[in-house]
Design brief:
Length: 214
Amino acid sequence: MTGGPGSPAAARPAQPGAAKPAVPSLWNLANQLTMLRLALVPVFVVLLLADGGHNPKWRAVAWAAFAIAMITDLFDGEIARRHGLVTDFGKIADPIADKAIMGAALIGLSVLGDLPWWITAVILARELGITLMRFWVIRYSVIPASRGGKLKTLTQGVAVGMYVLPLTGWLATGRAVLIGLAVVLTVASGADYVRQAVRLRREGLARAEEAKAK
């Protein structure tokens, strides 16, 4: 085994002429999945609203488009991190694609009268607020995704997907309970992000003051 922490190779400083790590292509697999999710947004909207928005066949096809978008969301970030394919485009486009497909679904369902507007307003306000808050503290640190935030995203995706489908009976009751849980997780995880943002900004300002004092 070579190249360990104590080996000569590890101790040897990098040579000035050493090759720099390759910059990942803009058209890498992770970014292609993100672009696919963005492209699916208008397709999903057209399918959701087709034939007045209440045709079971079109709603099933719309659900398929929504499901594909959600699945790409599960894989693009993981692929980028695992294979060194993180790009500036991906950092910006990935969260935009996430919010675009979810926002399109929420607004479309509310327009059709299938989802109360107050639920759409709460979720979208939270997403917009947290996005702005991330920019507010980005000069000091990056707010990591929490377990609550990940659970919120999963619950939202499943619940909204169930609303896209024309369900009845106990499945309709189940999706109502699930969207209620999604709203609770949305508010709770949002409050946690606010707490983290305030703490990170306070710590960042303290470090800046210490640096000035030296």
